């Protein structure tokens, strides 16, 4: 019984990796994903679906993002391994784990304390030591550790938040879904001395960024 389930999971894992490597050109990202056990980051009830290329519920109305989108967003950051990265929206901690393999240090902020605690526990159990997870306060991001070489926002914003551009170092990259509540564009902003350069990388759909920089009527709880 257990072996059948494990076989099915590793078969799904190989199939997912094959799909991701068609779309993602950065081999460092693909190799890092290949070593990530996504089943460790999802609740027991959805463990058998851990390698489906889809978002899955992680409780508190939130989701672990679709693996291909995680890969696309990570590729969009153009990481060289030396960066301190800020992640907004720790959620399950899966994206955090991927960043930990591809950057020097990861600061991750999550507004739901129970999710932050759970993700921090999983990351620590699996030995990801170059990450710190914080429960978000009033402001957006984590200015105390700025500037960052890269910032990733795994929740959708109506526009690129000024507060995050301020926390980005010169030459830094910001990847963020920007658009309406139902559909967004994945955007990469590069901060240059001449200003912020914007690249549109394709459509995506994320749960909303809450608190500051949210849509009217969704200013958090
Ligand atoms: N990368 C995560 C995505 C989780 S969904 C994963 O794949 O597991 C997005 C997360 O962003 C949710 O957990 C939500 O609570 C969190 N979030 C939303 N607004 C936020 C904010 N202003 N600051 C920090 N986290 C926020």
CATH topology of the domain at 55-204: the name is Rossmann fold
Average pLDDT over all residues? 94
Overall 3D form:
globular
Number of DSSP helices? 6
Structural class: alpha/beta
> Strand count, sense and closure of the main sheet?
7 strands, mixed
CATH homologous superfamily caption of the domain at 55-204: Vaccinia Virus protein VP39
User: Strand order across the biggest sheet?
Assistant: 5-4-3-6-7-8-9
Strand content: 25-35%
Q: Which parts are unreliable, with pLDDT below 50 for 5 consecutive residues or more?
A: 217-221
Ligand roster? S-adenosyl-L-homocysteine
Radius of gyration: 17 Å
- The CATH C-level class name of the domain at 55-204: Alpha Beta
- Helix-strand pattern: HHEEHEHEHEEHEEE
Q: What is the number of strand segments? A: 9
Q: Percent helix among the residues?
A: 25-40%
Based on the structure given, which CATH architecture of the domain at 55-204 is correct? 3-Layer(aba) Sandwich
Rounded to the nearest angstrom, the distance between the terminal CA atoms is: 44 Å
Describe the protein in words.
The chain has six helices and nine strands; from the N terminus they run H-H-E-E-H-E-H-E-H-E-E-H-E-E-E. By secondary structure, the protein is α/β, with parallel strands linked by helices. The chain has a domain of 150 residues: 3-Layer(aba) Sandwich (Rossmann fold), CATH 3.40.50.150. Strands 5-4-3-6-7-8-9 form a seven-stranded mixed β-sheet. A two-stranded antiparallel sheet has the order 1-2. Strand 3, helix 4 and strand 4 form a beta-alpha-beta unit. Helix 1 packs antiparallel against helix 2 and helix 1 packs parallel to helix 3. The N and C termini lie far apart (44 Å). The chain binds S-adenosyl-L-homocysteine (SAH). The site of S-adenosyl-L-homocysteine (SAH) has 23 residues, from strand 2, helix 4 and strand 4. S-adenosyl-L-homocysteine (SAH) binds next to strand 2, helix 4 and strand 4.
């Amino acid at each position: 019984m257990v072996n059948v389930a494990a076989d099915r999971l590793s078969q799904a894992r190989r199939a997912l990796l094959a799909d991701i490597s068609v779309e993602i050109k950065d081999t460092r990202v693909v190799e890092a994903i290949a070593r990530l056990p996504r089943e460790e980051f999802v609740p027991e009830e959805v463990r058998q679906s851990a390698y489906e290329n889809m978002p899955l519920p992680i409780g508190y109305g939130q989701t672990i993002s679709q693996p291909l989108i995680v890969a696309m967003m990570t590729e969009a950051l153009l990481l060289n391994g030396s960066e301190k990265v800020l992640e907004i929206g720790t959620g399950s901690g899966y994206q955090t784990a991927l960043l930990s393999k591809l950057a020097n240090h990861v600061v991750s902020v999550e507004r739901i304390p129970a999710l932050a605690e759970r993700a921090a526990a999983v990351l620590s159990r699996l030995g990801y030591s170059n990450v710190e997870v914080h429960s978000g306060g009033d402001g957006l991001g984590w200015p105390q550790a700025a500037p960052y070489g890269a910032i990733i926002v795994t929740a959708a914003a109506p526009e690129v938040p000024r507060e995050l551009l301020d926390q980005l170092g010169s030459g830094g990259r910001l990847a963020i879904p920007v658009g309406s509540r139902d559909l967004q564009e994945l955007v990469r902003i590069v901060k240059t001395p001449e200003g912020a350069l914007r690249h549109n990388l394709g459509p995506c759909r994320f749960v909303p960024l809450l608190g500051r920089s949210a849509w009217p009527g969704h200013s958090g709880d």
